[in-house]
Every structure is written in C-alpha cells, then in structure tokens.
Specification:
alpha+beta; 3-stranded antiparallel beta sheet; 56% helix; 15% strand; globular
C-alpha cells in the first residue's frame, strides 16, 4: 500500500471517530444533565465587568467524560470542551469564565448541582482579579 493510501485511510478513521464523538457529545443528546440557561451564558460572554473569574479544579475522582458533557451543556462546542478538559487534565485547573460576580455565582451553582448529580468532587471558586 502506498504511503498516500495509508495516510488517507488514517484520515478517514479520524474523521469517523470525530463524527462519533460529536454525535455523542451533541448538546441535545445529553439528557442526564439539566439544561443550562443560555441567557446566563450570553450575559457572561458579553460582560464588560471582568473583575472576577471562575476557576475549576479537578482531582483524580472527576470523570473526564463528565467535564466534557458539562462544558458542552454550558455552551462550548465539542472541540472546545475537549480542549478545556485537556487543559484541566494537564494543569489541574482552568479559568472558565470572567464576568460580574453575580453571574459567576449562578454559573457556579449550576456546575455544583451537576457535580452533585454525578457524585463528582469538583472544586471551583470565584477569584477577584
């Protein structure tokens, strides 16, 4: 088999795996988590007051699958959710959002409720910048 055919087959397998992953983590297919308030995420994204940030920390007991589902439910794309999960896995924490404290408190409450449902010990805190 030629080198190009080998690369082509590998690319086809990667694309199939990507499609399966995207389908599995499609926001509408995640029914074991409460829906997230899209208006809250819009408010966080458009916030001009970025004096606070929400940091998420993980330990060995947190499922990486849970993190991806959580990020997708919040409103991140599947690809961005996987990237965030990898950052948390690599660094142990990630700054998820910057906004007004009241908005981040609502986001934090959602994250904590989902973690309780999954029996995960996910640590998060709001930090004043």
């Amino acid at each position: 088999m030629s080198f190009l055919k080998s690369i082509n087959r590998q690319m086809e397998r990667n694309q199939a795996a990507s499609r399966a992953l995207l389908e599995y983590y499609d926001q509408s297919s995640i029914c074991d988590m409460e829906d997230f308030d899209k208006e809250l995420w819009s408010s966080i994204a458009s916030s001009n007051n970025e004096h606070y940030s929400l940091e998420i920390k993980i330990n060995d007991e947190v499922s990486l699958d849970f993190l991806i589902k959580l990020f997708v439910k919040i409103g991140f794309s599947c690809e961005d959710s996987v990237r965030l999960m990898m950052l948390i896995h690599k660094n142990g924490s990630v700054l998820l959002a910057r906004a007004e404290e009241s908005l981040l408190i609502r986001l934090q409450a959602y994250i904590n409720a989902q973690a309780r449902e999954y029996a995960c010990r996910l640590t998060n805190r709001i930090i004043k910048i």
